């Protein structure tokens, strides 16, 4: 046997041992272990619960500085309440703090050609407005977006939905973003649950 043949047999044997023992996971090959699949399923369930919980407040009036289910919320008190009451994740009820604090979530890059491409259910969405216009660019610290915040609620019938309080609606709404102020003013996003 040549050294080359011995080497090939050794590699094939090693690959077989690894495959049989499960010592190495292969996510790059699209293989998902049962444990990883369960974690993904649990996370998906948690994020669905966020939207379900938030929808219990549909139509509740926008009220500045208020966080009272059934009575009123402003935008950031709403996002804070949804996360706290559903998942026990507590963070500031200030939209500016939610947007600019590095201790709250991780930035999600908004694609300039398709703003929804990298978003996942539960992401906080930040919009430029008169309270924090910034320079209107995407993804930068100068983009603004500390004036209004909502929660990305996923895709329904090909439309990208937002769950939010206020945003010119004067109440809690669940609505498609396409063709609205939400689509044109989105400048920043953060993921709270990874």
TrEMBL record:
Q: Name one Pfam family in it.
A: NLPC_P60
Family label = Belongs to the peptidase C40 family.
The chain positions of domain NlpC/P60 read: 44-193
Family matches, as InterPro entries? NLP_P60_dom, Papain-like_cys_pep_sf, Peptidase_C40
Signal sequence range: 1-26
PANTHER family in the record: MUREIN DD-ENDOPEPTIDASE MEPH-RELATED
**Is DNA repair among this UniProt entry's keywords?**
no
Write out the entry's keywords from A to Z: Hydrolase, Protease, Signal, Thiol protease
Question: Which lineage ranks, top first, belong to the organism behind this chain?
Answer: Bacteria, Bacillati, Bacillota, Bacilli, Bacillales
Superkingdom of the source?
Answer: Bacteria
**Which protein are we looking at?**
NlpC/P60 domain-containing protein
Record the organism.
Paenibacillus glycanilyticus
């Amino acid at each position: 046997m040549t050294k080359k043949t011995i080497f090939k047999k050794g590699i094939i044997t090693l690959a077989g041992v690894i495959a049989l023992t499960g010592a190495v996971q292969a996510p790059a090959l699209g293989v998902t272990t049962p444990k990883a699949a369960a974690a993904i399923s649990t996370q998906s369930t948690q994020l669905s619960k966020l939207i379900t919980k938030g929808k219990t407040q549909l139509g509740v009036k926008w009220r500045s500085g208020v966080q009272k289910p059934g009575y009123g919320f402003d935008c950031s008190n709403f996002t804070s309440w949804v996360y706290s009451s559903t998942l026990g994740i507590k963070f500031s009820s200030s939209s500016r703090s939610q947007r600019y604090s590095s201790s709250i979530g991780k930035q999600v890059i908004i694609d300039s050609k398709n703003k929804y491409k990298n978003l996942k259910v539960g992401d906080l969405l930040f919009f430029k407005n008169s309270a924090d216009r910034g320079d209107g660019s995407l993804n930068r610290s100068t983009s603004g977006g500390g004036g209004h915040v909502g929660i990305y609620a996923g895709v329904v019938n090909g439309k990208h939905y937002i769950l939010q309080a206020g945003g010119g609606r004067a109440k809690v709404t669940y609505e498609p973003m396409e063709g609205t102020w939400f689509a044109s003013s989105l400048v920043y996003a953060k993921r709270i649950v990874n």
